[in-house]
Design brief:
97 residues, alpha+beta, 2 domains, two-stranded antiparallel sheet, rod-shaped, binds zinc ion
Length: 97
């Protein structure tokens, strides 16, 4: 009689753990994959990588800079490329320097 009760208790415990494990597996999986997708999306850079960079002329000092290394400034709908932040500032405020 007592042994039968113990066996029943063991079965209930086993069932409970099995259910818990299954629930964790079912509930955890979609969230995990969703998070991974988000990580991949944020890791992707906005601009496609350029193997050969186009050379751009700095309008302030006249230096040619590779496009991917230039300091970019968009002014009045036109894009300007500078060799440094200093030249960019000089271009934006010619009277300041
Ligand atoms: Zn410059």
């Amino acid at each position: 009689m007592f042994v039968r009760f113990l066996r029943f208790l063991l079965l209930v415990a086993l069932g409970f753990f099995l259910f818990k494990w299954l629930w964790k597996g079912v509930a955890g999986w979609p969230f995990a994959s969703k998070k991974k997708q988000q990580d991949e999306a944020t890791a992707t850079p906005n601009a496609p990588p350029k193997i050969i960079a186009e050379m751009k002329k700095d309008p302030v000092c006249g230096t040619y800079i590779p496009e991917n290394q230039a300091v970019i400034c968009e002014l009045h709908g036109a894009t300007h490329y500078f060799c440094s932040e200093e030249c960019k500032l000089k271009f934006q405020e010619p009277d300041a320097g």
